[in-house]
Structures are given as C-alpha cells and as structure tokens.
Amino acid sequence: MWNRLLAGLLCLVLAAFAARADEKPYRVSLIGDGFDGTSWHTGVLVELAPGWKTYWRMPGDSGVPPDFTWTPSQPARIEVGYPTPARHADKSGEAVGYDREVLFPVTVTPDKPGDIDLKLDLFFGVCKDICIPAQASASVSLGTSARDPLGSLRVDTARAALPTPGDAVTAAEVVTRDGKPALQLTLKERPEDIFVESTTSAYFRAPVFSDDGRQALLPIGSLGDASKLKGQALTITYLTGGKGHEQTLMLP
Questions:
Q1: Where is the signal peptide (predicted)?
Q2: pLDDT for position 20
C-alpha cells in the first residue's frame, strides 16, 4: 500500500515539474476592435512573468526586437506603435525594452471598406537570467460592431501614451572621447533618458549629462567605422516627466 502511495506521489511531483517546464514566461494576445470610420484600432498585448522583460525596436547591446508578421483577410495598411521604452542592465550589458507587460497599439486601414480578420505571427525575445527567442500567434476579427470595449479602452489609452513630436535636441555630432566615438547632443533641457536609432548597426549607450543637462554624450558601440554615421538621419526618442517624445535630426 505504501509503495503505491509513494509511487502516486512521485507521479504527481513529476507531472507538476513537467507542467512547469512547459509553461512559457509570456502570453501574447490581440485585444480591442475600435473603429473610427476609416481604420480599426487593436493592440498586441505581451504579458510577461515576474522578472522577465522583452525588447523595443532597438533592443540595446543585444536582444531581439519584435518582428510582427501580419496576415489580413483583405489588403490593408497595418501600422504598429511602439511605447516609450526603459533601459535595463543585464549580464550582456544594456537592454532597452519593457518589463511586466507592454501593449503595442495597431492601426489597421483596409484598402476597401469591409470587415477584416487579422492574424499575427510574432517573433521576439524575452530575457531574465537568460535570453531566449520566442514565438506566438494571435488573431482578432475586426467588424464595425465592437465586441471588446474594455480592450478598445486599453488600446486608446496606449495610443494616447505613445511618444509625441518633440524638439528638445537642437544639435547632434559624432565626437571622439578617450579614443572612442560618441554622439554629442545639445539639449534645451535635460531629459530622463535618451534612445537613439540610425540605419547603421550602431548602439548609442546611456547618456552622460553635463552643462546642467544641456549636453549629453552617448558612447557608440557595435560600429567599427564611425564615418558610416556621416549624413545619417537619427531618430531620437527621449523621456521627460514620464512622457515620451520623438524627433528626427540629421548628422553633419
């Protein structure tokens, strides 16, 4: 009898470990189906287990930016909005992204009026003690009669919180500091953080501020030849008062 009980308990423990091993540290869904007369507004909700994070479109020193693959039931223009990220430190250096959860607002504008079924295949990265690639699929039916008002409210809130146009950066140039390239920015005021993107492989690290916050120096990594930045258009996203702003600036 005792042998049977022990065997049963062992089976339960092994089953629990197997179930836990199969659990993923993330969940992906499409929520919201608001319609403004021309476009539908839905959103990609990525929920993360405690301690896990995922990445922005420019992921930092390493990491995997999200790759959205859409399959609409009819031709449509699909635009994804990226919430303002945060900078995190991990074993591989700096990571730029989100923790706990993130909602990417999505605007779907069909070529012709009519309801539309939308499928998403998402390839992205998640990271805790280790970083792993992740894949998920989700779908939503978008019609003129809303079926998910609470989800639509969350999407509207996320859309309103997206970075807005800004002009805090007045000049940018590539300089050399301690024999290494860096991006020097002239600012109207000191932001809380600055994220810079270019079409090159350069990663612009966390800013070091000087001159009462009117100057910022961002060391440049992952770029062998700094001359590749000459004439580049930079997308600069910065955080001020908890609100994100975005502007484009040309390098000389």
A1: 1-21
A2: 42
Instruction: Sketch the domain layout of the chain as residue ranges.
Output: 24-162, 165-250
Residues 6+ apart with CB under 8 A from 149: none
Does residue 5 carry a pLDDT above 50? no
Q: Which CATH class is domain 165-250?
A: mainly beta
Homologous superfamily of 24-162 in CATH? Thiol:disulfide interchange protein DsbD, N-terminal domain (2.60.40.1250)
CB 86 within 8 A of CB 16: no
- pTM of the model as a whole: 0.88
pLDDT in tens, 107-163: 999 999 889 999 999 999 999 988 899 999 999 999 877 689 999 999 999 999 999
R_g of the chain computed on alpha carbons: 22
The closest of 236, 70, 23 to 244, measured between CA atoms, is 236
Q: Which residues contact 5 (CB under 8 A, 6 or more apart)?
A: none
pLDDT digits (tens, 9 = 90+) for 65-88: 999 999 999 999 999 999 999 998
In contact, 96 and 196? CB cutoff 8 Å: no
Give DSSP secondary structure letters for 72-88: ESS-EEEEE-----EEE
